Amino acid sequence: MSGAVRYSPGWKHSPAVEGCGTQLRSGHSSFHLRFARIMLAYFFNRPLPPALEGLADLALDLRWTWSHATDQLWNKLDPEAWERTGNPYYILQSVSQARLVEVAADHAFREELQRWLAHRQDYLHDPGWFRRGREEHAPKGIAYFSMEFGLGEALPIYSGGLGILAGDYLKAASDLGVPVTGIGLLYQQGYFRQLLDPEGRQGEAFPYNDPMTLPVTPAADHEGGWLENPPGIAGPNDGPPDLACPGGQSDAVPA
Is the pLDDT of residue 205 over 70? Predict the structure, then answer.
């Protein structure tokens, strides 16, 4: 699942979105890679020095939620923000341009960045335990539906036990090379935060999940546009809904 989380609008002009998460290991098409780069440029539109362009790929690859090998890279970029959030995507959006220019001139930082980018490519192209020796018989994709996926605090689409378990399934599937696609909901609002007013009375605040500020990018349809999944409400005489994920294989979860 080294992966970019993709989402698709539930319907046009609607803030509701349906998440389609997968792993970008083996079998991803050049089309989806090109689309991912276009969406990355569209959603992550702050300028990065040429020597640091790979940071955006690392920040959108949610493998940092369970593999902490690159922690020192982000800590070096912004120690205060890293200590406060542990969120590479937030750091890359909030760090000053002057600091980016400064680390771009740091030879040791550039070398470490290139080392982890190369490691990421090795991970993405490694077929993994699941596919070794069974390429002809392995399924092209497995859909995993869940109301929650607890991948990390940076993507608040879970509350507790079920979400954490579902997230762990995706993480294990990624490391083993199992082509699992997690399909869930990118909630507009997460669980409320408790607040106390000056008189000690409890209040609630509901954080708004703006896709532009989360480590997600839109899912692509076969024509290169944004994939849309119009919600259907089944009647008493209707059969089960027809559900599918873009591409029919795991080419998009948790660059």
Answer: yes
